[in-house]
């Protein structure tokens, strides 16, 4: 529980130095001439200061309240060495240094700070006593506990004069005799924080030293304690765009925020490694870290060790180093380098030769010399070439010298202004560096996603390795065995949407997006084959997606193509051109919140007043922030919640954190809120229960904490071949894990094929043979080397999937090759191309026999509509297999053309390739019969008519499958089309419309509505069914969920970081009111099943009004003419804005006897007509708004079992229904003429009921079907 208490800037402040006994002995030795050289002294802990610094005893429970950002519970005792402390006084009779600095032997310190090793780390080169004053020096420390949690320290070493009088008393900062030797002793002050604020803490110490050097030693401990107490009052800013500033005279200190929740704060200069190393050496170090080598940094400057090592930790994000990380080793700690595990450590440069000669398998990084070498037997592979080349080109565009930036500025006498300019320059450069290094990591691990099985949490490492370039495989073999890569895999399998995921998605090539629209096995396209004949600069784009786009290749793709990269193509620019980042995340300008001046920090009432001032100041800022800037508003709420929690105002803190639901849930501190809830006193709990918002918050937090206890991070499994016999369920899992195919129906047919004539279980040896043949066939396709003359005849996205042996054909001798579109002959002798047939042109495929001497050789005959002559090939033993495969491809192509569904071709292709693997695996007489079990489309062609009704064929434009990456079809619950401007007014993709598709359990799939390519294959919006969607403005999409929450998504970032939680039942309807004027308030309405309707101010997300309607399940909401029209199961209501009922339309009399209920309605306001549909009735009722007693007309819908949804398009009403069909009800769409009240069209394209309809600018209608079909049909509107 203690870990969840908010922590401020300070964890502890420790003073380290030599004891006065050692100093006295040294002085006396100098005085007597015994010591010619000053020795190194042993450093000891002299003071420890840790929050809380003030307490107020509570009258109720007797426990002290500590108003500070501290973790009171996590403390332990540290026993100092006991010794005789003689009364050593200064010349003015003040206290001795030892009694001043160390008045207690038992020091209470935070539990995770190791005070035993700290003195060595504060003085890693030893504590020196000098005869002349020395400059102050700073260095930086990182402490890691056994759980991997890090704390960070900044150490300043400064010197103070010290002399002893003849009677043994010490003089410091006092008058000395000229006859006495002058000595200067070093003291170290180490400020420790949970957060890596290296620059800020260095500035704090710099400011403090100005005061400390002028203070008397009698005040030394009090000064350090006050300094520590002030830092304990500083809150840490939340992730985002708000930084915290405070005065610590003479400097103004700034604490920058983290950019994201999953990234640490960046408060150091990330360009330092680039000033020390060339790009090649930077890549070597990154490679050493990614492969988890033993890496040792060397420098003569202790400060560089930690800063440079920490920079590399940022460079590998989102991977995280999980081994020992000790960037500063003292002389006494060099034995740590003998550890057998991977580590990153740092030590002084003068140990380099000794370490290199005595320790094996080390990567030695010399920061001062800018070199990277290895000790004996260290093996460092090369990183992927394409990623390295891109990284080097990106670096050419970075401006890393601040002096060049200053050239255009005049001189400034304002120190604060100079520091602010430097911070802004550094922040901009840091962001550019992080983009470049993140792109490097994305380019290295881009292909990982293609080899993950999310359902079974399996990573197919063998296939991933096989897909890499041969020269890169050694690197990947080493990386795949590391702990950090395993954690990275776990996050990918959890579908974590972090900076890596966003960059990977946004830099995918259009070819990759098109490929992901099919579920066919991976084969190289003609486009990729053509790269074999181009220069190496063009081959870069194979692995980098859109990082280095080849514009000539992109033009060849069909459909609208967008360029996601800002960088010019290497084909269009000269080699000297600099490269900008392929995708840059927009960075909002930082806002600064300045803390009040510090009070006397050791008095309770002053500290309490300080917090009250801070709360009031935050409240004033919150009152003036524009509600539309919800992100900034969330940061202020978060900050005020932190301050309220440490000030003891727990209910106010909970109210502030409750406001994060409507402003930004990404920064919601679940652990802290849980701690606050658990710490509520009975009186506070009673008060919270009386406030609906807090009661709701407490309930949600309790529920989420229970779920968190039940959930784990999820394991990652490597794919392994089975060792035991498999029944059907186990077989399905194994095949899905292997990545061969995901579809349950296809795998079930494969199981039948492999178990023909035997027990219904698959032998592990049979599975191994099958898997091996499948992979060998895939590898053979990768090695197909087509001449350029052949490539010219094929389309860029065609792949060769099967090649026969050399056979005699009616067009000469050659090999028959099969792509997803055609068959063609690769002639032998002089390589050439002869087209055999496109699958859509085939009219007949049959097996015959060709006479040869006394033999009859099986041959295959193919008749097409484009040629008179029949193609014949003597395929011999392959004849039966090719006959099966071609018939399946032919049937699949016919189905695809008839139904406008390209996925049928991909399914047929998968079936054909599985037939090939089954025949190769079984090697028996029954192999062809077994393979025929996979002829799904060929059987379907014979069993059911393939022809689609003419009206349907003319109206249907295209079909897409949102369940493509799922093992089975999912019901399309709701569809929403958003025009291009909803993507974000400043984004590159703002001109492209999107289609949002809600599947089961809160899954949302996003399509580019210009090309119908899948942009986002699984956006998780809650965990329950989504009932409704609404495009509110360019920054907000609202999703009403079955769990009673309205989730709000930013269409540009795809971030679901806002929630409206006021509904108490499932949200069933959303509607947006038209603005009467341009600048008037935008209002949205929502309704829930129990009858509640809420009016929302869109800008503030505050409730304007709410009321409840008496009805049976309120399920839809529309706004017409300033009135609300609410559809329930038992009635349709016209309601005024204030919630009073104006009119009510009950179920017609003829439907009440059938236990029917309303399902949907459409209002033609201009004609004063209302159309209603019922769930169990195949008709539409037409009402005149002037007479709502009964419908004046009923429109019969032929072969309709019930109406599910309706939509108005121009002068038509499109009605989605479920039809009569016995056990398999087909979905039908009826197009009704609103003027003549007649059914114009009956459209049949779904094998299950129509769940949802939506309009795309009245040009197209999109329909989504229930789970047996699970597809989206796109219809033309006439």
TrEMBL record:
What GO CC annotations are associated with the protein? Answer: cytoplasmic vesicle
GO:BP terms for this protein? Answer: enteric nervous system development; regulation of Rab protein signal transduction
Q: Where is the signal peptide?
A: none
Say which domain of life the source belongs to: Eukaryota
Location of the region described as Disordered in the Swiss-Prot/TrEMBL record: 78-102, 512-534
Task: Check the record and name the Gene3D superfamilies matching this protein.
Answer: 3.40.50.11500, YVTN repeat-like/Quinoprotein amine dehydrogenase
Q: Record's SMART domains?
A: dDENN, DENN
Q: Which UniProt keywords apply?
A: Guanine-nucleotide releasing factor
**Record-linked InterPro entries:** cDENN_dom (IPR001194), dDENN_dom (IPR005112), DENN_C (IPR043153), DENN_Domain_GEFs (IPR051696), TPR_DENND3 (IPR057977), Tripartite_DENN (IPR037516), WD40/YVTN_repeat-like_dom_sf (IPR015943), WD40_repeat_dom_sf (IPR036322)
Domain (UDENN): residue spans on this chain: 70-499
Q: Name one GO molecular function term.
A: guanyl-nucleotide exchange factor activity
Which PANTHER family does the entry mention? DENN DOMAIN-CONTAINING PROTEIN 3, DENN DOMAIN-CONTAINING PROTEIN 4
Q: What is this protein called?
A: DENN domain containing 3
Per the UniProt record, the source organism is Astyanax mexicanus
């Amino acid at each position: 529980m203690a870990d969840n208490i908010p922590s401020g800037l300070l964890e502890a402040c420790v003073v380290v130095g030599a004891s006065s006994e050692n100093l006295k002995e040294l002085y006396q030795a100098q005085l007597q001439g015994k010591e010619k050289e000053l020795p190194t002294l042993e450093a000891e802990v002299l003071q420890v200061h840790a929050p809380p610094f003030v307490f107020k005893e509570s009258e109720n429970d007797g426990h002290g309240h500590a108003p500070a950002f501290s973790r009171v519970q996590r403390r332990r005792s540290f026993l100092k060495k006991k010794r005789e402390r003689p009364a050593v006084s200064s010349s003015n009779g003040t206290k001795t240094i030892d009694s001043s600095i160390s008045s207690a032997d038992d020091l209470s310190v935070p539990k995770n700070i190791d005070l035993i090793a700290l003195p060595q780390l504060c003085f890693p080169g030893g504590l020196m006593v000098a005869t002349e004053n020395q400059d102050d020096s700073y260095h930086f420390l990182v402490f890691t506990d056994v759980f991997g949690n890090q704390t960070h320290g900044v150490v300043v070493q400064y010197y103070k004069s010290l002399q002893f009088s003849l009677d043994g008393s010490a003089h410091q900062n006092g008058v000395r005799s000229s006859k006495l030797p002058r000595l200067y002793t070093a003291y170290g002050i180490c400020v420790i924080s949970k957060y890596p604020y290296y620059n800020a803490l260095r500035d704090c110490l710099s400011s403090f030293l100005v005061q400390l050097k002028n203070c008397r030693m009698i005040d030394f401990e009090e000064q350090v304690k006050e300094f520590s107490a002030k830092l304990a009052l500083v809150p840490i800013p939340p992730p985002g765009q708000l930084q915290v500033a405070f005065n610590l005279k003479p400097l103004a200190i700034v604490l920058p925020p983290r950019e994201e929740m999953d990234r640490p704060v960046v408060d150091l200069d990330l360009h330092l490694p680039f000033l020390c190393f060339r790009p090649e050496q930077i890549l070597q170090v990154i490679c050493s870290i990614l492969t988890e080598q033993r890496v040792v940094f060397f420098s003569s400057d202790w400060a560089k060790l930690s800063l440079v090592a920490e920079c590399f930790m940022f460079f590998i994000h989102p991977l995280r180093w999980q081994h020992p990380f000790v960037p500063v080793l003292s002389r006494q700690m060099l034995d740590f380098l003998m550890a057998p595990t991977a580590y990153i450590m740092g030590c002084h440069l003068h140990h380099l030769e000794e370490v290199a000669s005595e320790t094996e398998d080390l990567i030695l990084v010399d920061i001062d010399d800018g070199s990277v070498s290895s000790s004996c037997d260290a093996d460092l592979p090369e990183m992927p070439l394409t990623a390295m080349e891109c990284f080097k080109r990106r670096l050419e565009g970075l401006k890393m010298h601040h002096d060049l930036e200053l050239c255009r500025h005049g001189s400034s006498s304002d120190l604060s202004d100079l520091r602010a300019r430097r911070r802004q320059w550094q922040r901009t450069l840091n962001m550019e560096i992080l983009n470049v290094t993140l792109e490097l990591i994305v380019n290295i691990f881009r292909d990982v996603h293609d080899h993950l099985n999310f359902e079974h949490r399996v990573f197919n490492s063998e296939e991933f390795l096989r897909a890499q370039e041969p020269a890169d495989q050694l690197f990947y073999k080493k990386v795949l065995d590391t702990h950090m890569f395993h954690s990275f895999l776990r996050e990918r399998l959890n579908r974590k949407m972090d900076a890596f995921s966003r960059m990977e998605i946004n830099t995918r090539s259009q070819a990759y997006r098109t490929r992901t629209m099919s579920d066919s096995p991976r084969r190289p396209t003609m486009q990729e084959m053509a790269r074999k004949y181009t220069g190496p600069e063009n081959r870069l784009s194979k692995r980098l997606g859109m990082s280095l786009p080849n514009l000539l290749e992109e033009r060849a793709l069909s459909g609208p193509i967008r360029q996601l990269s800002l960088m010019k193509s290497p084909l269009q620019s000269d080699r000297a051109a600099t490269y900008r980042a392929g995708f840059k995340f927009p960075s909002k300008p930082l806002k600064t919140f300045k803390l009040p001046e510090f009070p006397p920090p050791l008095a309770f009432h002053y500290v309490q007043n300080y917090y009250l001032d801070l709360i009031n100041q935050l409240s004033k800022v919150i009152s003036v922030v524009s509600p539309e800037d919800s992100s900034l508003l969330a940061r202020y709420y978060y900050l005020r919640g932190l301050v309220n929690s440490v000030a003891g105002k727990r209910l106010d803190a909970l109210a502030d954190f409750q406001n994060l639901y409507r402003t930004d849930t990404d920064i919601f501190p679940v652990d802290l809120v849980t701690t606050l809830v658990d710490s509520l006193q009975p009186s506070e709990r009673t008060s919270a229960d009386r406030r609906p918002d807090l009661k709701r918050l407490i309930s949600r937090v309790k529920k989420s904490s229970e779920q968190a206890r039940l959930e784990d991070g999820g394991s990652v499994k490597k794919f392994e071949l089975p060792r035991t016999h498999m029944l059907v369920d186990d077989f399905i899992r194994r095949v899905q894990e292997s990545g061969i195919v995901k579809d349950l129906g296809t795998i079930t047919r494969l199981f039948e094929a492999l178990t023909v004539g035997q027990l219904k279980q698959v032998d592990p040896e049979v599975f191994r043979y099958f898997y091996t043949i499948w992979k060998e066939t895939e590898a053979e396709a990768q090695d197909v080397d087509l001449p350029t003359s052949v490539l010219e005849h094929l389309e860029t996205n065609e792949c060769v999937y099967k090649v026969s042996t050399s056979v005699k054909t009616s067009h000469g001798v050659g090999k028959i090759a099969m792509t997803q579109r055609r068959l063609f002959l690769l002639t032998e002798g002089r390589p050439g191309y002869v087209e055999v047939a496109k699958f859509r042109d085939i009219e007949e495929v049959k097996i015959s026999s060709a006479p040869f001497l006394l033999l009859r050789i099986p041959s295959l005959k193919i008749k097409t509509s484009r040629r008179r002559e029949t193609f014949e090939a003597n395929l011999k033993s392959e004849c039966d297999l090719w006959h099966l495969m071609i018939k399946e491809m032919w049937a699949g192509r016919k189905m695809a053309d008839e139904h406008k569904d390209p996925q049928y071709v991909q399914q047929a292709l998968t079936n054909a390739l599985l037939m090939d693997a089954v025949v190769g695996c079984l090697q028996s007489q029954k192999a062809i019969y077994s393979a025929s079990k996979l002829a799904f489309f060929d059987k379907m062609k014979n069993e059911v008519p393939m022809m689609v009704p003419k009206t349907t064929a003319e109206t249907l434009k295209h079909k897409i499958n949102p369940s493509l990456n799922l093992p089975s079809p999912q019901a399309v619950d709701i569809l929403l089309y958003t025009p291009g401007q909803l993507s974000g007014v400043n984004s590159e993709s703002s001109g492209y419309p999107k289609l949002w598709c809600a599947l089961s359990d809160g899954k949302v799939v996003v399509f580019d509505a210009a090309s119908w390519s899948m942009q986002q294959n699984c956006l998780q919006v809650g965990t329950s069914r989504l009932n409704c969607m609404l495009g509110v403005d360019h920054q907000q999409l609202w999703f009403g969920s079955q769990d009673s929450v309205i989730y709000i998504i930013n269409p540009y970032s795809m971030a679901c970081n806002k929630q409206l939680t006021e509904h108490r039942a499932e949200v069933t309807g959303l509607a947006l009111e038209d603005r009467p004027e341009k600048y008037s308030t935008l209002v949205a309405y929502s309704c829930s099943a129990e009858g509640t309707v809420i009016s929302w101010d869109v800008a503030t997300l505050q409730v304007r009004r709410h009321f409840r309607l008496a009805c049976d399940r309120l399920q839809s909401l529309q706004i017409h003419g300033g009135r609300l029209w609410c559809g329930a199961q038992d009635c349709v209501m016209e309601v005024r804005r204030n919630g009073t009922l104006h009119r009510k339309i009950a179920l017609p009399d003829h439907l009440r006897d059938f236990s029917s209920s309303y399902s949907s309605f459409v209002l033609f306001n201009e004609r004063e007509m209302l159309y209603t549909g019922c769930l169990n009735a195949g008709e539409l009722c037409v009402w005149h708004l002037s007479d709502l007693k009964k419908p004046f007309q009923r429109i019969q819908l032929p072969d309709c079992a019930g109406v599910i949804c309706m939509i108005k398009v121009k002068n038509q009403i499109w009605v989605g229904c479920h039809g009569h069909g016995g056990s398999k009800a087909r979905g039908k769409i009826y197009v009704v003429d609103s003027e003549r009240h007649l059914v114009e069209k009956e459209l049949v394209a779904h094998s299950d009921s129509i769940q949802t309809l939506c309009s795309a600018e009245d040009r197209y209608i999109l329909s989504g079907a229930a789970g047996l079909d699970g597809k989206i049909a796109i219809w033309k509107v006439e």
